[in-house]
Design brief:
The chain is α+β, with helices and mostly antiparallel strands. It is 49% helix and 16% strand. It has 7 helices and 7 strands; from the N terminus they run H-H-H-E-E-H-E-E-H-H-E-E-E-H. Helix 4 runs antiparallel to helix 6. The longest helix has 32 residues.
């Protein structure tokens, strides 16, 4: 008797195929809705918030660099006197130059207007050929302190002091027989470069000039940069410098 052949149940096979198709669709749907997973070797996109913050950081950095760069350029131009106004005062040197310029303008104005300009004649004692020489000069009559400043500055210029244009007297103060001369901060180093003999002659010339023209002044004291002079150096500027009066010399 021949064996019985089992005929596949086609309905069952169709149901199984349909179930497998539904399973594949559900799996594909889950893959589409699941967050993307990246391997370590794959390049992940930068989050939007991080990109915005990065762009803002770059803009801020460019702004800061531009501001600092502009400030540096303007400061450099100011130091080179390319953009600095004539009347801008930033330090003591600028103030002294401004005061001198104002005094010169006032003197020129008086002369050009033909006014009766009163002058004062002063005897100046300055260094010349390792000795003291006497020169007489006329100045516009101003306050006593201003004429003292004019006399000291002219003595410095006539004595050939290095960088004499930067060694001009800052301030003058009087107290009875003592006059206080406020010199720039570079004054001690300039005296050192001149040597002790010429430095002593220069200070002696200042003393003789003060004593000869501005009675009862008989002694001077030095200030350096509006501060008390420090002891030591080529000559001791912290000491009181005094010479005999003319009457004592003649006696």
């Amino acid at each position: 008797m021949p064996p019985v052949k089992h005929v596949p149940n086609r309905r069952r096979q169709a149901q199984q195929a349909l179930a497998e198709e539904e399973a594949r669709k559900r799996h594909a749907q889950r893959q589409r809705t699941r967050p993307t997973q990246y391997n370590d070797d794959e390049e992940r996109p930068t989050p939007l918030l991080l990109r915005i913050l990065s762009i803002l950081g770059v803009i801020l950095l460019c702004f800061v660099l531009g501001y600092l760069g502009t400030s540096w350029v303007v400061d450099l131009l100011n130091r080179k006197l390319l953009l600095k106004p004539d009347n801008r005062i930033e330090n003591q040197e600028d103030l002294s130059k401004f005061q001198e310029a104002e005094a010169e303008r006032s003197a020129r104005k008086l002369l050009t207007e033909g006014g009766n300009v009163q002058q004062v004649s002063l005897n100046l004692y300055h260094v010349k050929d390792n000795n003291l020489a006497e020169t007489r000069r006329n100045f516009i009559a101003r306050t006593r302190e201003d004429n003292m400043r004019d006399a000291v500055n002219e003595v410095i210029a006539l004595s050939g002091v290095p960088n004499s244009d930067k060694m001009k007297l800052l301030h003058v103060f009087r107290n009875d027989e003592t006059v206080f001369l406020d010199m720039p901060e570079q004054f001690p180093s300039v005296l050192k470069s001149m040597g002790k003999q010429k430095s002593l002659l220069l200070i002696t010339g200042m003393l003789r000039t003060m004593q000869s023209n501005f009675s009862p002044i008989s002694q001077i004291r030095f200030l350096i940069g509006s501060k008390a002079a420090k002891p030591g150096g080529e000559v001791d500027l912290s000491s009181i410098w005094k010479l005999p009066k003319k009457s004592e010399d003649n006696g």
